[in-house]
Amino acid sequence: MTDQPTDHLDRRDFFKGLGVASAATLLLSAVGGTLAGDVFQTPTSGNVHNRPWWIRNVDKPSLGIDWEVIERFNAHTGLVLGEQGMRYVGDEDEINRLESKASALEIDRIQRNVPGYRLQDQALYSAFRMARNALPLSFLGLQQTPTPEQLNVPRWEGTPEDAAQMVKAALRHMGAATVGIVELDERTRKLIYSIDIDGKPIEFEDVPLGYETDDRRVIPYGHRWAIVYTVQMSEETLKRASTVTGAQTTMLAYYRGISIQLIAQEFLRGLGYQALGQPAINALGIAPALAVMAGLGELSRLNRVVTPEYGPMVRIFFLITNLPMAPDSPIDAGIARFCRTCMKCAEACPSSALSFAKEPTWQPAGPWNNPGHETWFENSPRCRRYWLESAGTNCGICFAVCPFSKKNRSFMHDFMKMHIATVPAVDGVVRSFDDAFGYGIQKDPETWWTSDLPPYGIEP
Predict the structure, then answer these.
(1) What's the rounded Cα separation, in Å, for the pair 446 and 456?
(2) Fewer CB atoms < 10 Å away: N or C end of the chain?
(3) What is the pLDDT of residues 154-204, one digit of tens each?
(4) Rounded to an integer, what distance in angstroms lies between the CA atom of residue 424 and that of residue 75?
(5) What's the start-to-end Cα distance of the chain, in Å?
(6) Per-residue pLDDT for 433 more than 50?
C-alpha cells in the first residue's frame, strides 16, 4: 500500500467539526429527503426499479465521452486479463517466472495452513471455477426452448415499455441484482469489441438473425437493444481479499451471471426473439461502459462501475437482442464527484495501480485502455503483476474498501448517499465518517468459515 498524506478527520474530529448547527441541518434535510423519496422516486424503464429521489436520470454520463474518438476495442490483444494482453506485464520468460511463483505460493500456503489460503479455501475457489467453466456459455445460447413458430402461435408483442418491464422482472427473478437497457446506435455500437477476446472478429450485418462461423461472429443491425445486468458479490468474502477466500466470490458471481445469460437467452427465444450472449467471461463488449449508459452506475476512480445500491460489489454482464425495449438513461448519484475527494481505493491498492489525481483525465494509461472517455485510468499490468507475484490469486481490495460497498444496515448509510448526491461540500466529511467507523478495514480470513452468513454471502 502506498502511504499518502491525508487531511481526513478521526471520529472525534468528525463530530466536533460537524457541529450542532450542521447536524441539525443535515438531519432536517435527511428527514425531508426521506419523506420526499416516498413520493418522488426515480423510475427506470418498465418501472421495475424505483430508486431514491436523489439518483437523477441525466442525458450524459457524469464523466465525459467523446464518441468521435472512441473506437471499437480489440479485446484479443488489449485486455490485460487476456492471454495476449499479458505481454504488457512482461516478456515470456517473466510471465513464466511469475506464474511459477504464483503456483509455488499456492502450495506453500496450503502446506503452512495460512488462513484464507488453506485447502478448504482452495477447494471452494476451484469448485466455483470448475462449475463456471462447465456451463455451456455461447454467443447463440442453448437454442433448446421451443419457439412460437414451432408451437404454431404468434410471437409475443407489446409496447417497448411493456417489454422492458417483462425482461427486467424476468432477469431479477433469475438472480440479477439490477437490469438496464441500452439502445445500440452508431455511437453505442462502438462499445462492442471489434475483435473478441478469443480472436474472432465481431461484425454487424443487415441480416435477420445473428450467427457465428469458425472465423467471425455477426450481430444484425436490427438487434438494437442491449440488456445489461449485474450480479451482486459478497462483501463478506471480498473483505478477506486478497486471499483465495476473497477470490472465490468472483468465481461465484461469474457462475451466477453465466447461468442468468443461458436462461435469459432461452426465455427470449421462447418469446420469438433472439438473444446474443457473451461467448466467454468479459467477451463481446465493454460491459462496464454499457452499464454506465444503462444507468446502472457511474464510472469511478477504480475505472470500474460503482452502483448506488451495491457500490462496485457487482459483476456486469449483457445480452444483445432484437426485442424492442424502452431504453434507460445514465444517472448522476454524485459518485464520480465523490471520487475526486475520497481516494480510499487508491490508498488501499497494494500495487499502487490506481490514480491519486484529483481530477479524471482523457489520457489513457496504456493500450489496455480505450481512448475517448474521461476517467481515472488504472495501471492494469501493475495490478495483474501483483496478482501473480504477491497475492497468488486475484485481488479486489479496492472494491471492498469503497464507501459505497457497505451494507445499508443503518439509515445513516442512505443518509450519507443522499448528501453525496446533493451536497458536494460534505464529501470529505463523509469519507472521514467512513474511516472513523472502521468501514473498509479488511477482515481476518479465518473468521469467514465460522460467520453466520446469508445465502451467497449477500444480505437480503
Answers:
(1) 18
(2) C
(3) 999 999 999 999 999 999 999 999 999 999 999 999 999 999 999 999 999
(4) 37
(5) 33
(6) yes
pLDDT in tens, 363-421: 999 999 999 999 999 999 999 999 988 888 889 999 999 999 887 655 567 777 887 88
In Å, what is the CA distance from 16 to each residue of 169, 342, 429? 46, 20, 11
Q: 411-422 and 427-436 are packed helices; what angle lies between their axes, rounded to 10 degrees?
A: 150
pLDDT category of residue 22 using cuts at 50, 70 and 90: very low
Q: Quick check: 281 and 272 in contact, CB under 8 A?
A: no
Question: Cell 445473428 sits at which residue?
Answer: 210
Distance CA 354, CA 402 (A): 13
- The rounded distance, in Å, linking the Cα atoms of 141 and 124 is 27
Q: Convert the chain into a string of H (helix), E (strand) and C (coil).
A: CCCCCCCCCCHHHHHHHHHHHHHHHHHHHHHHHHHHHHHCCEECHHHCCEECCCCEECCCCCCCECCCCCCCCEHHHHCCCCCHHHHHCCCHHHHHHHHHHHHHHHHHHHHCCCCCCCHHHHHHHHHHHHHHHHCCCCCCCCCCCCCHHHHCCCCCCCCHHHHHHHHHHHHHHHCCCCEEEEECCCCHHHHECCECCCCCEEEEECCCCCEECCCCEEEECCCCEEEEEEEECCHHHHCCCCCHHHHHHHHHHHHHHHHHHHHHHHHHHHHCCCEECCCCCCCCECHHHHHHHCCCCEECCCCCEEECCCECCEEEEEEEECCCCCCCCCEECCHHHHHHHHCHHHHHCCCCCCCCCCCCECCCCCCCCCCCECECCCCHHHHHHHHHHHHCCCCCHHHHHCHHHCCCCCHHHHHHHHHHHHCHHHHHHHHHHHHHCCCCCCCCHHHHHHCCCCHHHCCC
At 437, list the grid cell.
467507523
Predicted pLDDT at 126: 93
4 vs 457: CA distance, rounded Å: 33
Rounded CA separation 35/242 (Å): 41
Counted residue by residue, the chain has a size of: 460
The set of cell numbers assigned to 240 is 478477506
Cβ 443 vs Cβ 405: under 8 Å = no
pTM of the model: 0.90
Cell 422482472 appears where? Answer: 169
